[in-house]
Design a protein that fits this description.
397 residues; 32% strand; eight-stranded antiparallel beta sheet; alpha+beta
Amino acid sequence: VAFVAADVFFEETFEDGDGYKSRWVESKWKGKDQGPFELSAGTYNGDQELDKGLKTMEDYRWYDISAKFPTPLETNKDKTLVLQYSVKHEQKLDCGGGYIKLFGSDINQEEMGGETDYKIMFGPDICGTSTKKTHVIFTYKGKNLLTKKDIKCETDELSHIYTLVLRPDNTYEVFIDWKSVEKGDLYEDFDFLEPKKIRDPESIKPKDWVDEAEIDDPEDKKPDGYDDIPKQIADPEAKQPEDWDEDSDGTWEAPMIDNPEYKGPWKAKKIPNPAYKGKWEPNMIPNPAFVDDKEVYVLGEIGAIGIEVWQVKAGSIYDNLLVCDSEEIAKARAEKIQERMAIEKTLKTRADEDARKAAEEERKKREAEEAAKKKDEPEEEDDDDEEDDEPKKKEDL
């Protein structure tokens, strides 16, 4: 496959073993609560060496590590920007992040943490049943802008490839395993800009403005005797029980049931209000805070990538990090990874099935042992029967 004028700004596959330690810097910002990383391909993988990645190792820890680009990307103006990586939550992540971030090259790597300014935050976040999403967050003029859309994430224990494509037409697209799961317009899905118009704070609803779209029909009259209809009546099908004794039980009364003739409090029917002027809306005026920007996709200088997450249960494996300006390059890399992911899935499925069968056999064995134990137990003598026989024996004597 030929790629024309395409650039790879950063790529990490951890294929040189501990060599990654010369490129990646672990933060110290959380001190003793900082969790360690180790290289691992996980229990199930397509290639023991090629699938090695950074694995979070201890529960209830912060994980913060970053690497700088060989050469900072001065600007993504007029470029497509692609951010891609794979992550596997082998521990069945129940609460924790699985996302990554892009930073400027001026990042203090040893102090990098949750308060560090970033350009993009992207990837899965899981916590219980309420949070299972793929974050897409841009930093714009000092504010972190979350997507207005709910983008689901994968929650199984297999490797998945997350890809974010940011295009120079101010659109974006999210892929999981190179299947598009969400796309849209940056202006519509994020609050990059203030609204062009706002409600006029001096616009006041006129006192004679009529808000009621309908009114009671003045010609509608309540029927005679309407209020005399009881809400409940005696059940006409109820019968006095044959064994009812008025001397001891009192006078019998049929139970009460809802009256099918009862219609509730009377209300006049509604008719259109001839004085209705419609829903009042304040006047809209130009927003003095609005500043147009035709290039909100431009992130400025980018020079580092990092993992910055908290995990209750550790065991996530990050691998195949890529930042480039070509969707074709990213997809080609992903296709190679997916070949190994298919092997990983086969091995995991086979192991799960073996475990299921073993559990089923163990259950059957336990049930058989319990049945055999009950069968071998002697029957208990009926003491009551013996006691019943005693009077008969005495009578015989």
